[in-house]
Amino acid sequence: MAANPAPTAPGEEPTAPGSLKAPDTHSDKLDALQSQRKGGENFPLTTNQGVRIADDQNSLRAGNRGPTLLEDFILREKITHFDHERIPERIVHARGSAAHGYFQAYRSLSDVTKADFLADPAKKTPVFVRFSTVQGGAGSADTVRDIRGFATKFYTDEGIFDLVGNNTPIFFIQDALKFPDFVHAVKPEPHCAMPQGQSAHDTFWDYVSLQPETLHNVMWAMSDRGLPRSYRTMEGFGIHTFRLINAQGKATFVRFHWKPVAGKASLIWDESQKLTGRDPDFHRRDLWEAIEAGDFPEYELGLQLIPEEDEFAFDFDLLDPTKLIPEALVPVQRVGKMVLNRNPDNFFAENEQAAFHPGHIVPGIDFSNDPLLQGGCSPIPTRKSAALAGPISMKSRSTSPPARTITSNGTACTGWISTPIRQL
User: Where do the record's region annotations for Disordered lie (predicted)?
Assistant: First the structure.
């Protein structure tokens, strides 16, 4: 087996630091979408239909002091766009920050999976990652005590693979039927909308006291894991047990891990309290400025692999998302590295409109009978469509697939590919 390449030293990749100077890497998705990237300063202002606009400051009127004319389609388009340019806030994970990058496997994993991005160590697969808090709204502080979301979108040649996870290896509940009740309990009290982004209130602790299965993850949330120092020093976990399928059809259970190359670090409670007031954007600012400076965050992908025939070889249920698989029993194999080297061009279009769904898998990766995973594959697309203004949400920048899509969903929209992910 080939030796794992050493982690990249900060600032050494690319040779010219700065997020706009990364070396070009070929990608079919990037090639197809390059024409949609914003260009220089000589492009004329146009309507959404491409009609040039001569005056964007004055409406059409009947004379100097007459009424505005209904035929002013530029005015109508601009106001209509303004009225619809925001989307409903996420129910959970509303506060988030994102970055683009790439993933590269250390070695071929074709012995356990036929997924193309894990089979070729020479291939760089574009990725988009969104970090988030869980409880608070979009305007809440970064440094509150909370579980953090760690969601990764792989733009593979076979379609999108969404690895949706958190910074703890397990979840609060085992059955998706309990998910709405749990979220209602952890959100602000309905009569007063307090507290924002915190869990220290009666409904949360009432729920926890009545659901003993939540206590495992509560202990993680109340530990240092609930106060990460930075997204760059935070682990990520896929939580669910998935199945890897190789070309011969053999299945292997897997749990996914992200290991930060910079190591793990946390805030202490006093630091967290001060930063919440002094710099509510602390984690967002840290991620953005590190990438702009060329100090790119890096994470190694780790796998815990268990042959499917060994499902009952342990004294706990491998498919229970409230239980971790001890690394002493099943060591984590580090199989690749992810580098985040690009900040978004447009925060709203790429971060707020980004949507992740655990049902987005590619050939070589399959579901297990994990009850939370099974339930999560159904309601999430509905929530995603509602949040992004309907089923056409697949046209948003970060959500659009890398492969050519030809559907029978009407509107004669065959083979579109929407706005781009950023260059590697």
Answer: 1-62
CA max distance for the chain: 84
Total Cβ atoms within 10 A of residue 252: 20
pTM: 0.82
Q: Which of the 8 DSSP states describes residue 421?
A: P
Would you say 155 and 420 are in contact if contact means Cβ atoms under 8 Å apart?
no
For the chain, the residue count is: 424
β partners of residue 128: 100, 153
CA–CA separation, 53 vs 310, rounded Å?
Answer: 66
Compute the distance between CA of residue 252 and CA of residue 266 in angstroms, rounded to an integer: 34
pLDDT in tens, 367-394: 999 999 998 764 454 445 455 554 444 4
Between CA 24 and CA 18 the distance in angstroms is: 13
CATH no. of 83-395: 2.40.180.10
Domain ranges in the chain? 83-395
The set of long-range contacts for 203-208, using a CB threshold of 8 Å and a minimum separation of 24, is 207/181, 207/182
